[in-house]
Design goal:
The chain is of the alpha/beta class. The protein contains six helices and seven strands. Strands 1, 2, 3, 4, 5, 6 and 7 form a seven-stranded mixed beta sheet that branches. Strand 5 (about 155-165) and strand 6 (about 175-180) form a beta hairpin.
Length: about 240
Amino acid sequence: MSSFRLLLVCALALCISACSTPEIPFDKSSTKIQRIGLPTPGFPSGPSVALASDPGQSFGLVGALVDAGLQSKRESHLKAIFISNGFEPLDGFWSNLVAQLEKDGYAVVPIAVSRDRSDFLKQLPSAPEPIAAYFDVVVQNYGYMAAGIGSENPYRPFLILNCKLVRVSDSAILMQDSVAVNPLNTGSGWLAQKLVTISPDPAFAFPGMDEITNNPKQAIEGTKSAFAQSTEAVGKLLR
């Protein structure tokens, strides 16, 4: 196995491990949680623009390197769209999450923290106000994904996150789950395990990267849609 392909396999294994968190259903009636501390969510440094099936996969290391270069270019374009339009993905997602939890009847205390982007907090931070539990959310990946090339496989928004609710008094995990907006290959593997899966909003579908680049406002709205879908699903987990 080439070193590049080995790296790809290892990266996939890490993603599978990270996204397959144990499911712990929430029993709201017995816990009586009302005030939740919400630390800054774990969040990637930038969006992904991924092809689930890339032509370069058939051409060994050279093809894989070309694919990696093209993906990096696509992601740079999308990140530039966000920056030039003043869109801050982390702030937008965090605000969505606060609004959703408050809508569901919780008093939310945002807690700004510096953290690892890809894992739950190792140590829970001090809260500026009394709270009953911490809600730790980690967005593993987000952006746009296509099943393959061609207009019949458009880019659609996607997002994958893990979340857990931890009681302050005894550090007990009261709820833990994963949410995936626009998961591909749901018939087998880790996505067939227990997690919340959501179909992407059909209003946001781009035949290719040019369409994303030429419609920046729509591309941003598609990302916001995935944020809203995921936070709504998270809210349901805490009802």
